[in-house]
Amino acid sequence: ALQKPILLADLEALLGRCLLTAAPIDPESLVAALSRREIHVYYQPKATRIAPNRWIIEGVEALARWQHPTLDMISPAQFIPLAEKHGLIRTLTEQVLETALSQCRAWDAAGLSLSVAINLSPQLLNDRSFPDQVARMTDQAGADPRRIIFEVTESAAMSDPDTTMDVLTRMRVKNFGLSIDDFGTGYSSLKQLYLMPFSELKIDTSFVRDVFSHEDARTMVETMVLLAHKLRLTACAEGVESQEVLDFLDAVGCDRAQGYFIGRPMTGNALAACTREWNALYGS
Ligand code: C2E
Ligand code: CA
Ligand code: CA
Ligand code: CA
């Protein structure tokens, strides 16, 4: 029998993310995209363990998507570095935050109270005016800062540790949550973890993915959960793709879980439906 060819779009839907496009993207088109508001926001659910074997969705991570009018959807893996390089990351982040805050109001109106995680480029932690700006935006949207978590990946861009520390402290004082993203990879160090005022530790996908193929990965995940708790942080595992992995996380007392098994990144409306369905199924 003839098999339907697999289209790029199918693959993309299957993977739940955007494939890298071969089209050249340049800073000028990103500037245009920002002014035309072509940067959309998708939301991926984060489940919280409220009791053994009971996980409910009460938060999301906001993920940027560039919906180009003629090209396919462009992955953040492509345009975030471009935005960072060309001084556009602050504008982009403010747009993502603004969109997420207004989505929160829409969810509130629909009877859903969700916390939102926003990704912060390490560059922004060199900008001492940033905390006041986000506090102003949050206040104007009538949102409680406790509902907003900023996820930061450590990087060499944290060139000035004093400024970084100052910016993070200002955010914490304003009651925003702070999450150390992709923990255990790249530049993330144990030293930063206890020095900086984080409230959540995100265990990187690379460990979570391997829990059933490598015994050592299980040890790593379990130990990172323990470490987070000892430091009074919440532990969140990313890349949870199966019930088995969720059960393992449950057994080691991980507080939050995120991944395709719980839900893919999706539009605000789809997220509301997904949350109701999941919480009815797993929350009781
Ligand atoms: P991240 O912060 O580590 O976000 C998680 C990425 O993993 C997302 O990719 C998400 O779609 C993907 N993912 C989630 N669950 C699973 C799973 O179960 N399996 C697998 N294989 N992957 C999963 P995405 O949306 O392509 O974003 C890539 C990166 O781009 C993000 O990594 C983040 O570092 C960056 N990014 C996205 N939006 C923003 C933004 O608004 N600002 C900044 N500064 N960075 C952003
Ligand atoms: Ca993140
Ligand atoms: Ca991550
Ligand atoms: Ca990442």
UniProtKB/TrEMBL annotation:
One of its GO terms (molecular function) is cyclic-guanylate-specific phosphodiesterase activity. Residues 23-279 form the EAL domain. GO terms for biological process: phosphorelay signal transduction system. Keywords: Phosphoprotein. Coiled coil: none annotated. This is Uncharacterized protein. It comes from Steroidobacter denitrificans. The lineage of its organism: Bacteria, Pseudomonadati, Pseudomonadota, Gammaproteobacteria, Steroidobacterales. The chain holds residues 109 to 392 of 399 of the full protein.
